[in-house]
## 1
Amino acid sequence: MSPLTRRQLLALGAAGAGAAAVGGAGLWWTSGGGEALGGGRELLQPEVLSSRNGVLDLALEAAPAQVRIGAREANVQAFNGSLPGPTLRVRPGDTLRVAMSNRLDAPTNLHVHGLHVSPEDNGDNPFVSIAPGESFDYEYVLPQDHPPGTFWYHPHHHGHVADQLAAGLYGTIVVEDPEPVPVARERVLVISDLTLDGAGDLAEVSPPERMMGREGQTVLVNGQVRPGATAAPGERELWRVVNACPSRYLRLTLDGQDLRLSGHDIGRLPEPVEVTEVTLAPGNRVELLVDTREGTSTLVAAPVDRGSMDGMMNGMMDGMMGGPGGGPGSGEPVDLLTLEVAGDPAGEAGPVPAGPSLRDLRDEPVEARRTLDFAMGMGMGMGGMMGGTRGPGQMMSFTIDGREFDAERTDQRVRVGTVEEWTLTNSSPMDHPMHLHVWPMQVVTDGGRDVSAPRWQDVVNIPAFGEITVRVAFDDFAGRTVFHCHILDHEDLGMMGTLEAR
Ligand code: C2O
Ligand code: CU
Ligand code: CU
């Protein structure tokens, strides 16, 4: 792969500018002013479907939908007509059956992000393709010892993932904690972003926006623009936060409240950790314990610098992504939610029971070590770049170990019952949040430093020109699945590989 030349960058900018002029003309969202858009309403919770007698059986229909976003009617895509889709609550050992039907005009499928379930057949199989008008019956069997936590579901058809997520197709999965932390209430907060045009339709996404990873101009919580929530002082709430944005990183703060992190992606921490801010890459979840104090606090998402092509490219992106400062990570903080704490103080919330101690793979023998390199480069001539032989937006290559995704090729073969150490390197100027299906990863070194307490995640950030080392225990589930960048535009552009466990 050859690095970008100045001429190629200029050409990319020119290609994107036209698309952006069209997409940008009718944007109804300018900035701030949630009220003008109908913000300030009470935070809603998605419909909850819970398992009974060990089974949750449901139908999910992916279809175009008209929903109210702020003060506007919006034409989106949704599961069962609502954005987000229903929250699915299951227990370890349960069977989750989803009859998924596709009423979209593109192929789709379903992925249960973070669940430790079989990737084969009608399990969490990312190679399934459900054509428009067709349906598919999924069955996911959770092991008896499945960790509790906040997980989520979304379509995973290569080439359509970012578009379908950005259109509104996602929902939360909760695996109940056998020993739940006592709280006054739980809230699910699904954070997503999208860009609507003046007619309330999803705005066109330009090739450069795909290359950077699109960031929608409107950031939603449970499909709402800046909703409000209320609580009494001294209450403890559990917030299950899902970053369902295709590319946007979220650095969250809730000044004025006592925040503790009790879970990150999977499981529950042995002890909650006091935090003032927490950062979620796309796909990450956190569980936050909020011990409320009197006053009004705002949940704010501060921009996160996730790299750029370089200064010049960044300048172009500003022009294409809604004015100066509109590029990834360079925008203004976004107010997501207002929490008003008032009234008679509640009684003591009681102590948080200790969670089970976490497995530490640093104490276990490593069977194999591998290095995987995530890269971006000019993989073809300018003719291809400008949309000749490739799909729309394929202006440059997004690769793992120099190869674009090929569903037929098996990139990594691992042995069931072994622990491996993977060093994930990034030779590109943008961060790539790496996600492995089925098996969680324990981060062992991050930013060149050893991690102290066991840290388990299913999406880990590989910083621009940096690296991170993880260990994975391939204890069970033979089968074939994928790992990829969870900037879903990058995944759709090829930054995904296959893995077979045998
Ligand atoms: Cu959340 Cu492979 O995805
Ligand atoms: Cu996943
Ligand atoms: Cu990426």
## 2
Amino acid sequence: MNYERMFERAIQSLKDESRYRVFTEIRRHAGDFPMATRFLEDGSEQKVTIWCSNDYLGMGQHPDVVAAIKNAADTYGAGAGGTRNISGNTRMICELERELADLHMKESALVFTSGYVSNDATLSTLGKLLPDCVILSDELNHASMIDGMRHAGCEKVIFRHNDARDLEDKLKSIDPARAKIIAFESVYSMDGDISPIRDFCDLADRYKAMTYLDEVHAVGLYGLRGGGVAEREGLMDRIDIIEGTLGKAYGVVGGFITASSNIIDAIRSYAKGFIFTTTLSPVMSAGALASVRHLKASRFERAMHQERAATLKSLLTDAGLPILPSVTHIVPLMVYNAELCKQASDMLLDDYGIYIQPINYPTVPRGLERLRLTPTPFHDDAMMAELVNALKDVWHRLDLRQAA
Ligand code: PLP
């Protein structure tokens, strides 16, 4: 048995497919986002502009968030001290949960260590608790939801992406007496499209199904108080469980669900991903709380974010670059080839100081590789002009496909 060789082979197969991932070592600068310093292997440093961060609003450097984190570290120390069941319940996390429940106008909330864990822990528990349950899942749901459904061990039925008609066909074919959950996202983060939430809720009512909505790429960003697309569309009360992250628009780390008190109590009591892991630290909880509170009250960041995204989309369209017609803040720039996508990303970084990770399989299907741009309120006109010029050069140098 040559174990080392087995691992080498696994790595080599990723390299052969041009989807071996390289993580560039960078240091972000609070107060100067999206600028960062890149550390090269030869020991030198390069100033780069980040164009692929999910810190969508730059809240990771917001003075209120940073101050709350510093203050919490000084006041409470670093860690939570254990799992919630053993000794990790802190007032800070309870306050955060009350704030999140209020954000989505639900009775209760539960915080997890990440959005991934919240999806995995919740869906796996729902599928086990509801007798003879079927989970109906959009075909493009995130890996964390897929894992949760797999761990639930119950039947899973996949419906076509954002397709209410296909979902209805699938619902019709299921015994009405069985428990059903429709699991979907609001903003799909690779294409930047939005699900027909209202249609899915109507179907849930008609076929007596529960609804589970991942708003990871929408919380903080949409709705009057940042409650997500369901808030914007006045549908929060029609969703049974809203799930979100504290790590993207809120700029910190952690995940959560909000729902009725009974649902939250059941997940709290049964979910392994909640019970058997150390609680999010009070320091990060304090940062997240400051961020959620700020974005509930301030609409400035959301308005700027939408304006910046619209401006970038129009600049890229004018330049003939092939972006997908995203209706959100996410700007997918298509390359359609893994190797070229990696080369384009390397060239942008090495030659132009522009940092955009290549997106390839399994995050997107093979042949649909892309650069995923995420403009923030901190990307100004000069940065956008610099980006568009660099992209035009790279597209020319690599002879990449233009917009149709
Ligand atoms: N759900 C979706 C749709 C995501 O895209 C992600 C992460 O990218 C997650 C959940 C996981 O969230 P987190 O990064 O907080 O673990």
## 3
Amino acid sequence: MTTRILTGITTSGTPHLGNYAGAIHPAIVASRQSGADSFYFLADYHALIKCDDPLRIQRSRLEIAATWLACGLDSQRVTFYRQSDIPEIPELAWLLTCVAGKGLLNRAHAYKAAVDRNVAAGEDPDAGVTMGLYSYPVLMAADILLFNAHQVPVGRDQIQHVEMARDIGQRFNHLFGHGREFFVQPQALIEEGVATLPGLDGRKMSKSYDNTIPLFGSAQQLKSAIAQIVTDSRLPGEAKDVQGSHLFTLYQSFATPAQSAELRDQLLQGLAWGEAKQRLFELLNDELGEAREQYHALINKPDELEDILQAGALKARKIATPFLGELREAVGLRSFRADQQVAASGKKKAAKSARFVSFREADGSFRFRLLGADGEELLLSERFADGKTAGQISKQLQSSAALDIRVQDDAFTLWLAAEEVAQSPLFADTQARDAAIARLRAALAV
Ligand code: TRP
């Protein structure tokens, strides 16, 4: 089975070189691996939590979309969309809000940090805390669970959020799944090998330290940013401390091993810092030049970007819409018309008859349920290796003259050719069980 990889990029700000090396580039490389089914999206609902400037929100969405595409993300191969184009995400967020424990969210790092700051300042603990900030992890859980992502590449600060998504998903499964796992358990994926770039001052490159190198500024802007990299005061001709130089670290992050070895030798032999900066400029300008052109071309064609993202949303909603339909059914938000109840496939079924609903488990196996005309679950099948077997078994059940039903306490199982193929839910007592058996016989006889 393919591995579904999903990650969101909060659209507040302009991508810099640190984002490129730490997130964008590795994600694009990963998306090209065979067996990866990648979902990348602009987390623009999340951006609203931190930013109330509409122009900045809009600008950042445009810049980040253009950046990913310019860096080589293939929107045909992956699913690339804006969170705010998928109405199923906030809808699922509400379903999850209704099962997420408040106590769980009280423990979220970002919320706790805000409370600690308030308390330290002698303020009300929740001063300035919006429900958006508080519920941030639930929205993120909806992002992840709606697409049943197996792996979620994130920074360390987001691990807790992925764990919360597991918790919340499990709770939903437990409450509404009746043995079915609606949601798989997502795993945070921390890329150990990925570079954390030093910024101009040697601290981690970060917008909050104001020490970044712009990713797609002009060549001149790149040059002047590099000119600001802090170095020690060793003069031309003096051997440089290569290990302690973040200029060298930056160079090494983009150079081949041979190029790095060459620059190291030259620095040890006294190459001037100014000269080393020129080398770094040339290296980065080469690495980014082509993407930069692409980027500016895209930024100037916002209509084209819009089309790409709309196509991505369509692709994502092909999965999201039917799945959310099942989740709505599971919690009891069903049509009053029996003939309009949505089956797992999203298709309408004939009126007033029982129906088989097949689905696939997270482990790749195939199963089906038999639902009564009113949506009551009558049977849940065993796991089958392929869809064909599952289909054949459900057909056989419909055509068998005498059903092999075996009762066991308050439940029963169904057998075909000496093999157990399905089981009932657990009933309140044997009377309820026998009534269900009668309904099952009636349903299969139709
Ligand atoms: N919270 C993430 C961040 O700040 C962005 C994000 C939103 C995300 N939804 C997600 C990441 C779902 C992974 C999966 O980095």
## 4
Amino acid sequence: MDLSAPLASVKGVGEKTAEKLTKAGLFTVRDLLYYLPRGYEDFSRVQDIAGIRPGRVIIKATVSGVKLSRKRRGLTITEATLSDTTGKLRAVWFNQPYRRTQFVDGKEYYFSGEFEFSYGRYQLMNPSAELASEYDERSDEIVPIYRSSYDLKPRQVRVLLGKLELYIPLVEELLPASVVAGEKLVSRADALRMIHFPKSEAEAARARRRLAFDELFELLLASELNRQENSRLKSTPIPFDVAAVRSFVASLPFKLTDSQRLAAWDIIKNLEEPAPMNRLLQGDVGSGKTVVAGLVACLAARAGFQTAFMAPTEVLAAQHADTLSKLLTSFGVNCTLLTGSVKGKNRELVYKAIADGTAQVVVGTHALITKKVQYHKLGLVVIDEQHRFGVKQRQELLTKGRLMPHLLSMTATPIPRSLQLTVFGDLDISTLNQTPTGRKPVITKIVSPNSEEQVFKKLDAELAAGRQVYYICAQVDENGSDDIKNVQKEYQKLKKRFAGYTTGLLHGRMKTDEKVKTMRDFLYKKTDLLVATTVVEVGMDVPNATAIVVRDADRFGLAQLHQLRGRVGRGEQQSYCYLVTSTSAKPTRRLLEIEKSTDGFYLAEKDLELRGPGEIYGKVQHGELDLQVAKLSDTRLIAQASRAARAFLASGQDLLEYKELVGDVQKYQKITTLN
Ligand code: ADP
Ligand code: MG
């Protein structure tokens, strides 16, 4: 008997079942044992329909009249009537079209969901449904609910797991025995038994906690190891030149905020160390990160080191090059732009200047990591909007120096506390939590599409006062083919409606130099109104722009909307953000949150709650961070696992002795490392 035995070899598993299991990606006994329930139901708590109150309810009811009632803008609504001996109610499912074929008219099911008043009546919203006859024999205890996968039905999974109970004692321990004992954890084998065959809700919860602990322990061990490895790397200290810092600060047209000062101080301290800095500067849109980066680039240049400053788009790189030149030229520091559109002879000259060190601050896009770029003496790497880059791109830039350069990454998408402690545990973090003085929070309004003219009237007022306006169009379809048509149509419409003003158009399919020109025209107020796709989302800084309209706002994510809104409110004038919905239906939770708050940290926490970390941080950087059980919002468990991981490392035990652990930890190390 062995956990890697094929499921087909287990007694009682027929050929047909084995086929279904294979299709669902389950091959061995171990695979099925780790096929965890998505939740539990206590069917002994069923209520009579006549007696239910708004809130979470479970009923046992007969289904009738299932129908797909509406379909518009990709939204499907399935409805059904549920009845028991005491009464009837309506159930609705949004975007679950398979519900229509799931039920057999007249059969009994358990339904579990939220009973609430919405769309003008009381109904059961998106209930889960389980065929009652499958559960009746054990309705006196809590029942694990499995996902159905292809042809594999939840009931089958339960029956199969019953046959595998014998194998459970073979489940390997993952953690060092000292940790299991020290943290008073149940064994992993017991945890799996309690997850599949719980006696009570408390027991199931305890078991899940154990598995969640393991995931977090691995993740935290990985980031602690990264931190240790980082501190052993060699870099070159950049000395703190007090006079240079003083005169830089004195040259600014404004006073630095306290948090800018603190952040700069943290960075300066790190630069003096022989180990490379690995610091994230996070600050809400408009909090003034660029000038902090400019200050340290100035220090580096004065000490004879080059800075590579990488931005995600050409438009942004060009803007940064402008800004940094302004900040640095008077200190005799040269600032050079290198992007895809620097071509031919010019490009060769830039390469040469980088190689011989005359280019002291090199601002650019991905072009900075191409083979041809050889730095003379790279001491500092700054990565703006770091979440836009993959781990690999950052690493390539870092390996461009002979010694490891110091790294300053910047982001306007703040990292929630829970993620700071886990995924980003090996980072030092500075936060700009003040907006420069004199700025007023942007006033945000959700607007239905019928009220367009009212919004236009508001724009009239802004334009008449000499201010500028962004008008953002959403991506219309997946492959983007209609987007250009859409934004061009809007552009024509606005040109007519605002005939007295000049209107610019910016979208992704334009040539880069055209894009940069359009952006500069807006920056220098040659255009008053800019119709654009989300190309403007990151970083654009036009303080005279005081209104932004986002069309089809419901199609955007929370972080994206916050970024877009951050394009305004950068000067001293009151600014406005109008979120135009695509239908007149009830606004989404996301839109309500963004209307309510301008606090990027609050919104980041909400985003994490609404979408989960995989969606937000997953795509580019953390593709493999697929936590099965652990929740990154569980700060208590994170703290416990963190303590345990550090104690384990301090105990001097060799990680390599724990074969099960090593593989996972190394995988996580790759995901979380910056170097
Ligand atoms: P972000 O953090 O979003 O990258 P920027 O660095 O683009 O923000 O700064 C936004 C604007 O605020 C710029 O126009 C910049 O010159 C200005 N700014 C930065 N710091 C201050 C300050 N302390 N006081 C006033 N304005 C500032
Ligand atoms: Mg910026």
